[in-house]
């Protein structure tokens, strides 16, 4: 494969925990050879960054979970993507998502489900976490991958009174796994498409 696979992470960082997750997603994706990963802050997105999303082979969405869904900054970005929806610009790109909340469950499934629906409306192909739940048996540990037991994407929990952006080691590792999984699958899909075109 000559040209790199391009992955963009479109994230609203909130109080810092979700941005830290985004860094872990980026680290995981960057471990896959011939992968170019860029981060886009959706709360201050530029025209150039919109075009970067348009040119990406995969977009990974991230936002904190507030009141059972993604942050208002992410919703503003999603609504602004309507122009892309009209032209089907993101059709058949791969997509995935990650989120953080203050509680262990914290209705994060609402946010991940919202991301999946948003991606589906754009005609994108959703990549799930691909992990069984961790820490759900007496032999398990809070350091298991996917310790919070989500399937649709990477989920993290951070205390609401933490102002340092600290994220649990397992949650960071789970986010890194997601980034790596998306990059690997994107590489496979892109290689297949290029082979069919040749």
Brief overview:
The chain is of the alpha/beta class and 198 residues long.
Question: How is this structure best described in words?
Answer:
Helices cover 41% and strands 20% of the residues. It has 198 residues and is of the alpha/beta class. Strands 1, 2, 3, 4, 5, 6 and 7 form a 7-stranded mixed beta sheet that branches. It is globular. The mean pLDDT is 96. Residues 52-125 form the NADPH-dependent FMN reductase-like domain. It comes from Streptomyces javensis.
Please name the defining characteristics of this protein:
198 residues, alpha/beta, 7-stranded mixed β-sheet, 6 helices, 41% helix, 20% strand
H/E element order: EHEHEEHHEHEEH
* Major sheet characteristics: 7 strands, mixed
Give unreliable regions as ranges. Answer: none
Cα-to-Cα separation, first versus last residue: 13 Å
Strand percentage lies at 15-25%
SS-based class:
alpha/beta
Count of DSSP H/I helices: 6
Mean pLDDT: 96
Which bin fits the share of residues in helices?
Answer: 40-55%
* CA-based shape: globular
The number of E-state strands comes to 7
Radius of gyration, taken over Cα atoms and rounded to an integer in Å: 16 Å
InterPro entries: Flavoprotein-like_sf, FMN_Rdtase-like_dom
Protein name: Flavodoxin family protein
Pfam families: FMN_red
Organism: Streptomyces javensis
Question: What is the strand and helix layout of this fold?
Answer:
Elements: E1 5-11, H1 17-30, E2 35-41, H2 47-55, E3 58-66, E4 69-70, H3 72-80, H4 82-87, E5 94-101, H5 108-121, E6 125-126, E7 154-157, H6 169-197
Parallel strand pairs: 1-2, 1-3, 3-5, 5-6, 5-7
Antiparallel strand pairs: 3-4
Helix pairs in contact: 1-6
């Amino acid at each position: 494969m000559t040209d790199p696979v391009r992955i963009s992470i479109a994230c609203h960082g909130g109080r810092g925990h979700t941005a830290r997750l985004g860094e872990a997603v980026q680290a995981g994706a960057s471990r896959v050879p011939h992968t170019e990963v860029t981060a886009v802050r959706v709360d201050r997105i530029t025209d150039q960054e919109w075009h970067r999303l348009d040119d990406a082979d995969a977009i990974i969405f991230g936002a904190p979970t507030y009141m059972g869904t993604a942050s208002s900054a992410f919703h503003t970005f999603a609504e602004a993507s309507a122009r892309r929806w009209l032209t089907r610009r993101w059709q058949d790109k791969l997509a995935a998502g990650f989120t953080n909340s203050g509680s262990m469950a914290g209705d994060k499934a609402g946010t991940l489900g919202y991301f999946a629906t948003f991606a589906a409306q754009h005609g994108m192909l959703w990549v799930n976490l691909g992990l069984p739940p961790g820490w759900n048996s007496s032999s398990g540990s809070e350091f298991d991958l996917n310790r919070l037991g989500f399937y649709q994407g990477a989920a993290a929990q951070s205390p609401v009174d933490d102002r340092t952006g600290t994220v649990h080691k397992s949650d960071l590792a789970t986010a890194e796994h997601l980034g790596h999984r998306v990059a690997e699958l994107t590489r496979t899909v892109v290689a297949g498409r290029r082979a069919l075109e040749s």
